[in-house]
Write a structure and sequence with these properties.
By secondary structure, the protein is mainly beta. Helices cover 6% and strands 25% of the residues. It has a domain at 22-100: Roll (Ubiquitin-like (UB roll)).
Length: 117
């Protein structure tokens, strides 16, 4: 599932060093993913080599990020049991349970997130 070519930009001439940004972990389809505080879910998934976020209703075609600004529906995922969440504009936080959205997705009313509380 992971793309060996996936990587993060660690240094940038204008931005502060990435090493100073705190990281958090969350799960995607049961795999542990490391994200950075204040970054969208889609960015963390792409950095981890994950390119498929959802499947299309009719034929199950895979979709990932397209516009990456919240205007389309290609990056929709299921977050903590709620489908239709745009991964490109939803920030990561520790303990999120993110899943590939299959077709239109279904609300999982029985889902209770374990956030260590």
């Amino acid at each position: 599932m992971s793309d060996p070519g996936a990587m993060r930009i660690e240094t940038h001439p204008i931005l502060e060093p990435l090493s100073t940004v705190s990281s958090v972990t969350f799960s995607f389809d049961g795999l542990i993913v490391v994200g950075r505080v204040d970054e969208p879910i889609a960015v963390a998934l792409l950095a981890a080599g994950i390119r498929i976020f959802r499947t299309m209703p009719r034929y199950g075609d895979p979709r990932g990020g397209y516009c990456m600004v919240g205007r389309c529906a290609d990056c929709m995922v299921v977050v903590d049991g709620v489908p239709g969440v745009r991964a490109c504009v939803t920030m990561v936080s520790a303990g999120l349970d993110v899943r590939t959205q299959q077709e239109l997705g279904e609300l999982d009313a029985s889902f209770v997130p374990d956030r260590g509380r």
